[in-house]
Structures are given as C-alpha cells and as structure tokens.
Design a protein that fits this description.
Radius of gyration: 32 Å
Largest sheet: none
Number of helices: 6
Order of helices and strands: HHHHHH
Strand content: under 5%
C-alpha cells in the first residue's frame, strides 16, 4: 500500500497559516452592537473628545494657577483654553501621544484632585478673608503666628533640633 503525503506544499501552508491568524484576529474583535462587544461598566463616563479634554485641562490649570497668580485666568480664559485644545489635539494624534491621554488610568482621580484642590484653597482664602474682616471690624488685631512648641524631654520622646550649620561636602 502506498502512503500519500497529506501535507500541502509550503506555499499553501503559508497561506493557510496567514488565514488562520487573520481568522483569529477578526474573531477577537466583535462587530459594533453585536452581543460579544464589550460593554462599559455602569457609571463609566463616556469618553471625552481629546480637544475638549485638553481644553478642560488648560482651564483647570488656569484655575489652579489663578489661586496663586490672579492674572493667569484673565490670560487663559475659556476661549484660549478651547483654542489650545483645538490645536493641541491633532498634534498629539500625529505623534501618537493621544494614547497616553485616552488610556490614562487615573484620569478621573486626577480630574477630581484638579477640581477639589483649588476649591479647598479658595475656601481657605475666603475664611481667612472673613476672619480678617471680622477682626478688623471688632478692633481685634489679627492673631500673631504661634510660637514653636517647646522641645520635648527625653521622657516624652526624642528631641529634634534645627540644623545649626551645614557643611558642604563635594561628592
């Protein structure tokens, strides 16, 4: 009995391997709207367009800097923030940097911090302002800065002393 070679020629084997790889790739990507398409978790915000995200980031930076430098929000107003987002988004896409913004895992937390920190700073400034006005109206001088705490004794814990002099030793 003669045994026939059941293996295809090398060219056909190569084509079959490519076809199998393509089938695997296509099978891993479900069509939009199909039952196999990944669904975002409930409560997950819809993705923000890159230009809007960059405009929002610019506006937030202006707000944060505005807490320390009051002229910055006048320069980086909403119109300029939008313009920056409009021109910067295509640059990020061109150089492939948009993937770092789009896939940034801590975006929600960073946005929360960028909103909360300036708000806390503004509330603090408002409280200090109100206290200063109340003290001025009552004729009470503003409280002096508190004196440093007394050094601790060995019985209460180790004592930290300020550095008297610093010697510079080249490395």
């Amino acid at each position: 009995m003669e045994v026939k070679n059941s293996l295809p020629d090398p060219a056909a084997a190569s084509i079959l391997a490519e076809a199998a790889a393509l089938d695997t790739k296509v099978a891993g990507t479900p069509a939009p709207g199909s039952p196999g398409e990944p669904v975002a978790a409930p409560g997950t915000p819809a993705p923000i367009p890159l230009d809007q995200e960059l405009a929002g980031l610019t506006a937030t930076i202006a707000t944060v800097l505005g807490q320390f430098f009051p002229s910055v929000p006048k320069v980086l107003d909403d119109e300029k923030a939008k313009a920056i987002g409009d021109v910067l988004a295509p640059v990020l896409v061109k150089y492939g940097l948009d993937r770092y913004v789009a896939g940034f895992a801590w975006r929600v937390e960073l946005n929360a911090i960028m909103v909360i920190v300036p708000t806390i700073a503004a509330v603090r400034a408002a409280i200090v302002h109100d206290l200063d006005q109340a003290n001025a109206a009552a004729g009470t001088p503003a409280p002096a800065p508190s004196s440093p705490p007394a050094p601790s004794s060995p019985a209460t814990g180790p004592m930290l002393r300020p550095v008297e002099s610093v010697e510079h030793h080249p490395v």
